[in-house]
Every structure is written in structure tokens, then in C-alpha cells.
Design goal:
Elements lengths: L1 H4 L3 H11 L6 H14 L36 H19 L14 H12 L2 H17 L4 H4 L4 H116 L3 H16 L4 H22 L14 H7 L10 E6 L5 E6 L5 E6 L3 E6 L5 E6 L5 E6 L5 E6 L3 E6 L4 E7 L5 E6 L5 E6 L4 E5 L4 E6 L6 E6 L5 E6 L3 E6 L4 E7 L5 E6 L5 E6 L3 E6 L4 E7 L5 E6 L5 E6 L3 E6 L5 E5 L5 E6 L6 E5 L3 E5 L1
Antiparallel strand pairs: 1-28, 2-3, 3-4, 4-5, 6-7, 7-8, 8-9, 10-11, 11-12, 12-13, 14-15, 15-16, 16-17, 18-19, 19-20, 20-21, 22-23, 23-24, 24-25, 26-27, 27-28
Helix pairs in contact: 3-5, 3-8, 5-6, 8-9
Length: 631
């Protein structure tokens, strides 16, 4: 190298003596490179500061696409001059200033030795070297110019050793990463083998279950002929049972005829016949009765007793000529605006358990509430003074309804009974039994002679108050019948069921005249409008539907969910519909504008809601055992 050629032999000798080795020793060069890399090399560089020049500045090019000559100055010479200036500016901007490359200055021997001693931690040797070195320089024995520079090979060797060291570190890291990746791969392979075995076992179990299922199907198919034979035998036995019952009835009739003939002979109608009959009767008296004849005799006596009891009572007749609905004129005369600004005025704490029903007296300011604590209570409104308390049901009360005259009250209960109460005396006067499960609702006919009830046993019943018996059972719903109501001043019944349908029944015949479908969930309640032209229903997801009773078609569907709608009732004008919701909110629907107003006050679920007859007061009952009055 050029630096090596220009270096005197004395300088090289001094460097060799300081290093204690030859310039070509590879191990010493490696140590020197490590020292330089660890402590950093010291360089002396001559720098000349020149004046700033504008040629070194980089200009930013600005595009001017909208170059144009102003109007009125369209001179050819000026245009050519402007074009030349623009071209010159472009050439100046395109010129790139090339800076001269920085010349690498080799490290001098003095700095190299200082760096080496500092890297090795030989501070005392460094102090001695510096003191002797600068002393010789001051005495003029040694000059800096004659010393020279360290050959470039040492610097390169140090850089290469540093790079080699870094590469070894990277190699070590890569080996560790590879080992970790190998371990992860082995772990994943083990997991794969485990899941593969698990999958095979699942497939084997699946195939086994499929084979077992096929075997069970074949086994079941082998039972089908036996079941068919048993089914046919069952039908045959039913037919024989029916024929036996017919023969039994015929035998009972013959026995009754013989006994009548015997009575006539005893009176003395015919001597010859009397003699024969007496002898036969004596023979019958002397011969013992078998159990079949004895049971027939007892059944005949019971039928006679029932016939005598039924003869004493007379069934009520369903009215044919019903009086017109007086609510039609009331609704036409009531032209005042509908009321929605109800405020909570009073809270009546009447029951220990949730309130299930609230009903208003048809003529007086009396309110009756039923609760799940098996008690109904009557109180005066608006003061809330307690008037009557009814105790008699053995399970929770579900509904109550006033007699059209207001002197009786009907209540339904989870004990499968409907009870009639005399409000003058406060005692139970009649109990109807016949449902197989809990009764959800009850309603009075407008004539006051019939009570209808709906039950969890999927049926509804019509009870005759005068003959004290069930006149008709309504079959047709496929799930619990949750609501029942008579159409005002008619013989039509409306029922709402958990099978998501509404049904209209003729109470005289017990037949379903029409069914309405549209709800997607169980129907909790349904009610007629006062004028009878509309039906409102609500379901278990809070959807309320309005139906046209004349056309038997849906009018509108309002989703107030997701909380269930427990009960719906119209006000006296038929323009406001109230819904008691499962989230404790009373929703008031304006049927004219479609707006929904909310009454907030119940702490928990609201079960029932009803308007007063003038529509000025609203009553609601909740699961907290309270009845709240809004006005």
C-alpha cells in the first residue's frame, strides 16, 4: 500500500517493538482489531472550511402547468424571452451537485498504541508511554512526521474480526432459534399424532353408533307388526266394550221395565199376570244376585237420583234478541281528547305476593284485586278503604270479573275451580269444578246467567249459574288457553292461546267459528274494544296486534318488546290501548296517531292494567304486590 511504502523503517520497528510481534502476525492483528473495536479508534483529520456556495444548494422543482401570456402583452420577442428563461431555470434545477467522496485518513501509530493500551486496560503502561512519548517529542528526538501511519491492513483486520464476532453471535442466536423451532416441531407432531388417534377413535365410535342405530331401527321394524296387531286388538276390544255397554244399557232398560210391570201387578191390574209375575219375583228374591246385576242396580239407582236432581233445576237459555251495545252511543258522544298525561297518585299495598288481576265495579267506585296469595280484596277508590276480603281458594288466583249487575264476583284460580261470590255478604255461593289444570281467566255473559273459563288443560268451559253445571266444553286449541272474553251483548266468545292463535266461538253450539293467526309467540291476553269493532292481543315477546272484528283481518302490529305483554285493555272511548309489560312499564298506545306513551313507576314486572269507566283513572298491578293508581 502507499502508506506502507512511505513509512520509514524506524517507524515500523517502533511499532513492532510496541506490539511485541511482527506486522504479519494474524493473532496480534486480531487482538488489535478487538481493542480498536472495543474502545474505538482515534483519528486526526485535517478539515478545510470553505465558503458557502450556492451551487451546493438543491432547488425544489415547481411545476407550472398554467403558463400563459397575459392579455394585451402578446409580443413575440417577450414570449421568446420568457420561454428561454423558463428553459434556463429548468436546466439549473436538473443539475445535481456531486459532492467529493470523503478520503479515508489512516490512523497514526501514536493513536493506535493509545487505543490498544486503553482497550487492554493497561493504564499505567499508557501513562508511561504518553509521558515518554511527549517528552521525546518536546526534546526533538522524535518527530510526528517521521513516525507515519498504521497500515490499512490492521484496520481492515479489526473490522473483519468485529464482523466475524457479530456473525458468530448471530449464528449462536440462530442455532438457539433452530433448536427451539425443532422442539416446537416435535411437540406439534406429537399433538398431531394425538389428535389423529383421537379422530380415529371418534370415527370408530361414530361407526359403532351408526351400526347400533341401524340395529335399533331393524329391531324397531320387527316390533311394528306386533304393534299393528296390538292396535287392531285394541280397536276390537273398544268395539266389544262399546257393544257391551250397549247391552248393559239394554239390560238396565229391561230391568226397569220389569220393575215397572212388577209395581203395576202389585197394584192389581191383572190377576193372571200378577200371579205369574209374583212367582218370578219370588224366584228372583230367593235366588242370590251376582256382582254384575248388583252393580247395574246401583248404577240405575244413581242415574235416577241424578235425573231427579236435574229435574229440580232448569238450564238457562242463551238470549236470542240481545239489546244493542250501549257503548256505541257513549263512544260517539265522547268527543273529548284522549288522555295520556297520567301521573302516579297513590300506591295500595294489598297483597304479600304478586297481583294477578284488577277489576273495576260496573256501577260503583269499587276496585277488586286478586293475588297469588289466594286472596281477593275489594276497596273503595280513590281513598283505598278496605271493604271486603275473600278467602276460599286453595291456590293462587288468576282472574276476576264482576257480574253485569255488580252484586256478584267470579274468580278463577290455580286450584282448577271457578268460584262465585256474593258481594253483599262476602261469602262464596257457588263453586264450579271440572277443569283438569289451572284456570287462567274467567268472564261473565252480558245476561249474567253464564260464566266462561279458560284453562291450562287446552279447553274452555261455559258454566250455567242457574243449573250449576257445565253447559259446554270448547275443544280446538293445541296449547294452554290463556285468555277468554265474551263479546259485549252477544253469544260470541274470544279466546287467546299459547298455540299463537285467537279463536271466536259460538257459545250456544260450542263450535269454533273463526281462528286468527299472526302472532309468532304465545298469546297472553286478548280483549274487545268497547264498541266491539276491534280486537287487541299481546304475546310473550311484547308484540301487540290490532284486528278488525268485522273483516277478521289484522290492522297493525306494534312491537313493544322484548319484554312480554301481560295484559291489554281499552279505555271507555276506545281510542287508547294500555299494555302492562314485563319490564314494569305501562304503555299507552294512541290509536289515532300511533304514538306510544310510557308510565314508569313499577319497581318490577307489571301484570295487569285497567281503566276506570270515565277514563280519568288508570289502575295497574305488579309483581311487588301493589296496585298503583294513575290519574
Amino acid at each position: 500500500m502507499a502508506a506502507q511504502r512511505g513509512m520509514p523503517n524506524s517507524a515500523l520497528r517502533v511499532l513492532e517493538e510496541a506490539l511485541g510481534m511482527g506486522l504479519t502476525a494474524t493473532g496480534d492483528a486480531r487482538d488489535t482489531a478487538d481493542a480498536v473495536a472495543a474502545e474505538g479508534a482515534y483519528y486526526l483529520e485535517q478539515v478545510t472550511i470553505s465558503e458557502t456556495s450556492e451551487d451546493d444548494y438543491e432547488y425544489e422543482e415547481i411545476q407550472d402547468d398554467n403558463f400563459s401570456i397575459p392579455e394585451g402583452e402578446e409580443d413575440l420577442a417577450k414570449a421568446i424571452q420568457m420561454a428561454q428563461e423558463q428553459a434556463t431555470d429548468t436546466e439549473i434545477l436538473e443539475q445535481k451537485t456531486v459532492l467529493p467522496s470523503k478520503h479515508a485518513v489512516p490512523e497514526v501509530i501514536e493513536d493506535f498504541l493509545c487505543n490498544f493500551l486503553m482497550k487492554m486496560g493497561m493504564t499505567r503502561t499508557l501513562d508511561c508511554f504518553q509521558s515518554e512519548w511527549y517528552e521525546l517529542i518536546q526534546k526533538g528526538v522524535t518527530e510526528r512526521r517521521t513516525v507515519g501511519n498504521v497500515p490499512d491492513v490492521y484496520t481492515q483486520i479489526m473490522l473483519l474480526e468485529n464482523e466475524n464476532k457479530n456473525l458468530k453471535k448471530d449464528l449462536k442466536h440462530y442455532k438457539q432459534a433452530a433448536d427451539k423451532a425443532r422442539e416446537d416441531l416435535l411437540k406439534i407432531q406429537k399433538e398431531r399424532d394425538f389428535h389423529r388417534m383421537h379422530h380415529k377413535r371418534i370415527v370408530q365410535e361414530k361407526n359403532k353408533l351408526i351400526n347400533d342405530l341401524k340395529g335399533l331401527k331393524l329391531h324397531y321394524a320387527s316390533y311394528e307388526p306386533t304393534l299393528r296387531v296390538l292396535h287392531e286388538k285394541h280397536h276390537t276390544l273398544l268395539k266389544e266394550k262399546m257393544l257391551t255397554s250397549l247391552e248393559r244399557d239394554r239390560a238396565v232398560g229391561q230391568i226397569s221395565g220389569l220393575q215397572e210391570t212388577l209395581k203395576n201387578m202389585e197394584i192389581g191390574h191383572s190377576y193372571y199376570v200378577t200371579e205369574i209375575k209374583v212367582d218370578r219375583s219370588c224366584e228372583k228374591e230367593n235366588t242370590p244376585e251376582d256382582p254384575t246385576q248388583k252393580s247395574l242396580h246401583e248404577a240405575r239407582e244413581q242415574n235416577k237420583c241424578k235425573t231427579k236432581m236435574k229435574g229440580n233445576t232448569k238450564d238457562s237459555e242463551f238470549p236470542i234478541d240481545m239489546q244493542p251495545n250501549p257503548n256505541l252511543n257513549v263512544c260517539k258522544e265522547n268527543l273529548s281528547p284522549a288522555k295520556f298525561d297520567y301521573k302516579l297518585k297513590n300506591i295500595f299495598r294489598l297483597h304479600e305476593l304478586p297481583v294477578s288481576c284488577v277489576s273495576v265495579h260496573p256501577h260503583k267506585d269499587i276496585l277488586v284485586s286478586c293475588g297469588e296469595d289466594r286472596v281477593w280484596k275489594a276497596l273503595s277508590i280513590p281513598k283505598g278503604n278496605m271493604l271486603l276480603t275473600g278467602v276460599g281458594h286453595t291456590d293462587w288466583l288468576s282472574d276476576c270479573c264482576f257480574h253485569p249487575s255488580g252484586n256478584k264476583l267470579a274468580t278463577s284460580s290455580g286450584d282448577t275451580t271457578v268460584k262465585l261470590w256474593d258481594l253483599c255478604k262476602g261469602n262464596c255461593i257457588l263453586t264450579f269444578e271440572g277443569h283438569g289444570h289451572a284456570i287462567w281467566s274467567c268472564t261473565w255473559h252480558s245476561c249474567g246467567d253464564f260464566v266462561a273459563s279458560s284453562s291450562l288443560d287446552k279447553t274452555s268451559k261455559i258454566w250455567d249459574v242457574n243449573s250449576e253445571r257445565c253447559r259446554c266444553t270448547l275443544y280446538g286449541h293445541t296449547d294452554s288457553v290463556n285468555s277468554i272474553e265474551f263479546f259485549p251483548f252477544s253469544n260470541t266468545l274470544l279466546t287467546g292461546s299459547a298455540d299463537k292463535s285467537l279463536s271466536l266461538w259460538d257459545a250456544r253450539t260450542g263450535k269454533c267459528e273463526q281462528s286468527l293467526y299472526g302472532h309468532m309467540h304465545s298469546i297472553n291476553d286478548a280483549s274487545f274494544a268497547p264498541r266491539g269493532h276491534m280486537i287487541a292481543s299481546c304475546d310473550a315477546c311484547g308484540v301487540t296486534k290490532l284486528w278488525d272484528f268485522r273483516k277478521l283481518l289484522p290492522i297493525v302490529s306494534i312491537d313493544i318488546g322484548p319484554s312480554p305483554g301481560n295484559e291489554v285493555n281499552f279505555d271507555s272511548s276506545g281510542r287508547v290501548l294500555a299494555q302492562a309489560s314485563g319490564n314494569g312499564v305501562i304503555h299507552l298506545l294512541d290509536l289515532k296517531s300511533g304514538q306510544i306513551h310510557k308510565l314508569l313507576g313499577h319497581e318490577r314486572e307489571a301484570h295487569t292494567v285497567v281503566f276506570s269507566h270515565d277514563g280519568e283513572i288508570l289502575f295497574s298491578g305488579g309483581s311487588d304486590g301493589t296496585v298503583r293508581m294513575w290519574s
